[in-house]
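Why do we bother with holo predictions? Because pocket geometry can differ from the apo form. Keep that in mind while you read this record for zinc ion.
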Amino acid sequence: MKQILPVLADIANGIFATLLAGWITNTEIFWWHFLVGVPLAMMPDLDAVPELLRRGKVAASSDYVYDHREGLHYPAVLLLVGIVLAWLVGFFGWLFLIATMLHFVNDSYGVGWGVAWLWPFSRTRYKCADRKVNQPKRMLVADGVWEKLSVDERRVRFIVSWSEEELPRFIMRWGRGDWIDKWYLTRNWVSVTEYLLFMCSLFILVAFLLR
Ligand SMILES: [Zn+2]
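The structure, written out:
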C-alpha cells in the first residue's frame, strides 16, 4: 500500500496540468479530462514497470545498480513531442507537454537520482537542492555515517549532478532499497512538499468539480 505514496505527486501534477492546459487553450474541462492528465503525468515512470514486474519493487541500490530513469526520462525528447502535439492538437498536446514536464520537475527535486536534462548531449543526471550522497542529514546521522562525510559531501548544493560514469558508484554506495520507508514515512522536505501538493490539488479538484 505504501507504494502509492511516491505516486501522489504525479496525481497532483496531472490535476494541475489538466487545469493549466484548459486555461491556456481556453478549453472547457470535464471530469474525464483528469483521467487523461493524471496517467500522462505518471507516464515517464512506465520505464520502471519491467523492474517492478521482475523484482516486485523499484529501487536502485547495491542489490540492483540500475536506475529505471534510463528508459523514458528524457525531457528534451518529450518536450519536442509535446510542442509538436500542442501545435497539432491543442488541448491534449498541451496536456501531454505540461504533465510530462511537471513529472520531470518533480523528479529533479524529489526522491531519486535526478534527470538527464541535457540528453542527447549528455547523460549526466541533475537534481536540485541535494547532496551528492543523495540522502537527508537525518538519515545519514541515523546510519552513523554523517561524521565520516567530508565537509564537501555534507554540503547541500543548489544543483547536484552525477555523470554517467560515477552514477553506478554512487548508487552502489548510497542507494537505498528501503527508500519508500525512509523518504515517505518520515517528515522531510520532499515528503512534506509532495503531500502538500497532493492535498492542495485534491482540494482544487473537488472545488472545480462542484462549482
Ligand atoms: Zn520519474
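The longest helix spans residues 189-209.
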